[in-house]
Design brief:
Elements lengths: L6 E6 L8 H12 L3 E4 L12 H16 L9 E7 L1 H13 L5 E5 L3
Parallel strand pairs: 1-2, 1-3, 3-4
């Protein structure tokens, strides 16, 4: 018997885009195919009168906190699905993780 493939889906919404069709249907489709999923949130990242750079740094730090216990190297297949501002965060995280096999599905905006 061969080793069963581990698959991971990570969903990165945009600001205010939490339950839209892109993320909902991606989660449904990949979940049906046996992917584990992580739904990223940005709770508290947009509070106050912050510059874009400060908000982006808050988002990145918040994402790192949410994935701190995930060993990405144990997954054979990783898909990042992102929308709008989440696309920038997904790209940043993929670069930080330095895993070349992460696939991206994204909608940068309308």
């Amino acid at each position: 018997m061969g080793k069963e493939s581990k698959r991971l889906l990570v969903l990165f919404p945009g600001k205010g885009y939490v339950a839209g069709p892109l993320l909902y249907y991606a989660n449904f489709k990949y979940g049906a195919d046996g992917y584990e999923s992580i739904k990223i949130n940005y709770d508290g990242c947009f509070q106050g009168d912050l510059s874009f750079d400060a908000v982006f740094e808050n988002m990145n730090n918040h994402v790192l906190e949410q994935i701190r216990d995930v060993n990405f190297l144990e997954y054979d297949n990783i898909v990042f699905v992102s929308k709008s501002l989440g696309t920038a965060v997904a790209g940043w995280l993929a670069d930080k993780l330095n895993i070349n096999t992460i696939r991206h599905i994204f909608d940068p905006d309308k």
